[in-house]
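[User] Could I get a sequence and structure tokens?

[Assistant]
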Amino acid sequence: MSGVNTTCPYCGVGCGVVAQRDDSGAVSVRGDENHPANFGRLCVKGAALGETTGHDGRLLYPQVNGERTNWETALDAAASRLCAIIDTHGPQAVAFYASGQLLTEDY
């Protein structure tokens, strides 16, 4: 069975992986031997990617205070809370960490 070539989403290295789904729907992932970033090798996180594809425990829609809502309301709530933090503690009180993989199809 052939797989789908994609990129590991964990860090900024951009390792190549090959993902496959078996007849039961389970996903397995292996390193892409032809990818120049990793030549088939994967770290422990990349090797366990197949175990992270289920929906159990995932937030599948926006929520505010534990209640399901629409994206506009959720984004407005996040923006107003960030503004309140900045107003109270200054602009250095908010920071974001972003991986180099934010441009991959996974995100």
